[in-house]
Amino acid sequence: MPSIRFHKYHALGNDYLVLDPADYPEPPTIEAIQKICHRHYGLGSDGILYGPSPATDGAFGLRIYNPDGSEAEKSGNGIRIFSRYLFDQKRVTEAPFKIHTLGGMVESTVGEGGKRIRVKMGGVSFQSKVIPVAGEPREVLNESVEILGEKFTFCAATVGNPHCVIPVEKATAELAKTYGPHLEVHPLFPHRTNVQFLEVIDRKNIRIEIWERGAGYTFASGSSSSASAAVAHKLGLCDADVTVHMPGGKIEIQIAPDYSITMTGPTTPVGAYAMNPEVLTQSVAL
Fold first, then answer.
1. Strand 4-11 and strand 268-275: pairing?
2. Which of 27, 61, 167, 277 is surrounded by the most beta carbons within 10 Å?
3. Opening angle at CA 256, ends 157 and 159, nearest 5
């Protein structure tokens, strides 16, 4: 079997491998994804972006895989990276174009020669049936959950994928790493959930620490930034234009009156890799 070609990018330290169907016609299996993304046994990444594949309305089809092999509906950083890949491959220009994800259609615009990308992420919903969150239909705002003997007040939202946002006085990596794994799989969230600990700095700035569903502790996340900013604005804690600070850097979020989100942030190419297919045949502890 010939080498398998990947292109690696990161968005504020959140790194993805792009696998083009032209190089690998069938989506990788769960076991293959786990081996490829492994930091020691594979190329190492926070996920695989499989595309472009044909989609409706002239959009570029994209499937997003987490390192555990599960499929994500949407990823803000992943969409920006995929957009940069399409631009680098000269499949798009700096004119707006559409990308179809399991979490809905988005519109992307590449700027600054690919270094900065704006994405219209779609609308945010706080409705339990849409996110989803267990229980009767409702807006999930300022509810209580207990994890490891600690009680937290949380809000839930979706921007095409589920999020649990917990306002705190000080967002720390320790909070995300300690409670994130348990919140991700809490019975409240039938599809599991991404978790953000949210600190409000001022009306125009928030800080978040992130535990990402299927990936773990993450330096940055575009969809987490979108959901957290929307929650903070919904609670009256920040303006409609807000900068989200994360360990990996900053993303700018604009919130429309209908809670449609526009996300703007950077991407960086890391390199192209020809992975030896023996990686997929090894027996490793995953």
1. antiparallel
2. 167
3. 25
| pLDDT reported for residue 283 | 81
Read off the tokens for 44.
Answer: 């190492």
Instruction: List domains and CATH numbers for the chain.
Output: 4-115+268-280 (3.10.310.10), 123-266 (3.10.310.10)
Work out the number of other CB atoms within 10 angstroms of the CB of residue 26: 7
> Which of 6, 47, 41 has the alpha carbon at shortest distance from 222?
47
Task: Write out pLDDT tens, residues 11-62.
Answer: 999 999 999 999 999 999 999 999 999 999 999 999 999 999 987 788 999 9
Q: pTM for the whole thing?
A: 0.95
> What gap in Å lies between CA 84 and CA 105, rounded to an integer?
17
**Low-confidence residues of the chain: pLDDT under 70:** 285-286
Residue with tokens 């990276």: 81
Q: What's the chain's Rg over C-alpha atoms?
A: 18
